[in-house]
Amino acid sequence: MTTFFDRRRTLRSHACVVLLTVLVAGCALGPSRDDPFEPMNRTLYQVHDAVDTAVVKPVAQAYIDVVPQFIRSGFSNVFNNIDDLFSAVNDLLQGKLDKFGDDMGRVVLNTGFGLGGLFDLASMVGIERGMEDFGQTFGVWGFPQGPYLFVPLFGPTTVRDGSGVLVRVALGPVGYIPNVPVRNSLYGVGYVDLRAQALQTGAVIDTAALDRYLFIRNAYLQRRRYLVYDGKPPPEPEEP
Amino acid sequence: MVINPIAPRSAALVLLLVAALWGAVPVARAQEAPDAIVKRVATDVIATIKSDPAIQAGNEARIRDVLETKLLPNFDFARMTALAMGKNWRSATPEQQQRVTDEFRALLVRTYSSALNSYRNETIEYKPLRMNAGDTEVTVRTLVVRPSGAPVQIDYSMEKKADGWKCYDVIVGGVSLVTNYRDEFNDQVKNGGVDGLIKTLADRNRGVAAK
After folding, report:
1. What ipTM score was computed for the predicted complex, to two decimals?
2. Beta sheet of B164-172, edge-to-edge order
């Protein structure tokens, strides 16, 4: 992991390559099928599910059981504050100046008066999170979403969203922290924190799904489409 | 006529007042506005859950009882099932349609009660209803604000039926509950026919884990 994030420049050029792949893949496949690699993805999902059930989920559950709510909220808020800054960047890239004002206002308020983001004062006064990311920006720019991918330990994504995540990771800021143990601890806590937040959703999926792979895929793709269109997606084209 | 006392300035109240001014009071009950129904039912269900010690203690049978009597009469499960099955709905016999509907309904109730189990003092904000006079389909938009975590938008697709407005889809954060099942239902029918779908749904409802 260390060397991977040390070579940020390489990662950036990788991100560019992936971006090109998005365009090529999008053109080659057309809009008919979202998941051309379903057999491979299903295998990767099974790997993910096995590791998640054996290790990640129990760790996330222990995190909830052991760490008090206010400390967990503090961690979530700090990570959210960083994401809000990137949301602001993506607001600009998408030309959404209103949202940019909200997200920057959130970052300034929470960083300045919320102890570096430990407290989410902005939400308390009703400034909503923009929740924009690079994947959505690519979507707004008209890049096709490309094939759906299930990445073990990471979860559902698409070529477009995955490219966005690579750009986001390459830009940091956690990657710039020079102390390797501190940096890796932050990655670890951030990861467990995210997984812990998803435990409830996971329980609902376990009850609701006939086939968890399909349920997660469809929910993910619907959700991302909704986010790209800022909560007002046009009606889905009818299946042929 | 039931008017929710908690939100006197709601669009629903204005609608009902307008109806009253037009002398339409006798039919107002049957034609309760769609957003008024959502608000009345949600308020009622949440109040019941909060005040019932058995539910607080995690009694799932009691939660289901509340859902059966208060929530489910407002849903159109046949339409939900037809939407989730897509073209396979038309190729199913009326008996099969009924059985899929019953099993799908049971699955949704199980899901709903497990979700309600994690209910933690969320508050619901109701967005203004955009609806024209002759509309027979509307979307009621709500925002569920949680004590921790991001707020979630929950929308209800409603259709005007002979016995009032009925909900045929719930869209949670952009994820339609009904269309989310389309691929799964399709898959089941492709592999085992409509009876295969019925069997899988019945198995899930008996607690057999999903693959």
Report:
1. 0.76
2. B123-126, B137-145, B152-161, B164-172, B175-176
